[in-house]
Amino acid sequence: MLYSTTTPQAKRATLRELLVPGTARQFPGAFNPLSARLIEQKGFDGVYISGAVLANDLGLPDIGLTTLTEVATRAGQIARMTDLPALVDADTGFGEPMNVARTVQELENAGLAGCHIEDQINPKRCGHLDGKAVVDLDTATKRIKAAADGRRDANFLIMARTDIRATEAGDTGLDAAVDRAKALVDAGADAIFPEAMGSVEEFAAICAAVDVPVLANMTEFGKSDLFTRAQLADAGVAMIIYPVTLLRIALGAAERALDTLAADGTQSAAVPDMATRARLYDLVDYEAYNRFDTGVFNFQVPGTPAPGPSTTGGTDG
User: Fold this and answer.
1) Which of 80, 81, 140, 159 stands the most exposed, by the fewest C-beta atoms within 10 Å?
2) Known EC number(s) (predicted)?
């Protein structure tokens, strides 16, 4: 009922325990709090919160338009809805090194288990678009050092993302990514997120080069093929994110249903594809509220057992 009873500190410890090289833990992206609970119910290891999704949810493109307040608030709403650890995209840290330190503390306050901070210039853009540019090594490492120095909980995960692979062609880009990953670890990164890798072999090269967990981004319509969990585990990857998958599925389904509604004048043909009322009530845990106060939930959902008699004398909610 209400929110997770697992403390943020416990979630951070769990995340640390999960991220073992070669385990390829799967973290689907949640686009709202209820989808985080669905991810948990389906047995996944953790929740990812994408900066692109947070921006898109506001009707904005992923070009650095969201603020720290917006990201921390929404990410906190998602994280508190699940017992799973949640990793959030903190873009470039929302400013200079001092701002990066504050970003980490605000995300700690919001209950996140960790964040990743990237080495793109400001304003940044989606990691799978062309025309990206990265900051110099000194600026990139200062961001990560500020993040590591700013945290108060030693278990809050600081992950460094590097986009340098896509800024240079061929082996030169991979070599640059390996070199930068090593430098970011030396600066205090607990894990590495090499963005837009071109092959499983490139992921394996990054994994072999650093002694911290490595993340693989399996976003659709991007520069990386959609490798399987087994392939990425064999490469040594510790964590896989699917940042926009659920949002894209939901939007696709919504668009098809709206087309049906417009064409038929009724949503009847779309009903079989919907989550039922009973399923929705299960996700929001109505029964727990019933046990807490039967005055809140004293009616029967179709397809479920009738609730017990009210003990509070309340009216239908």
Assistant:
1) 80
2) 4.1.3.30
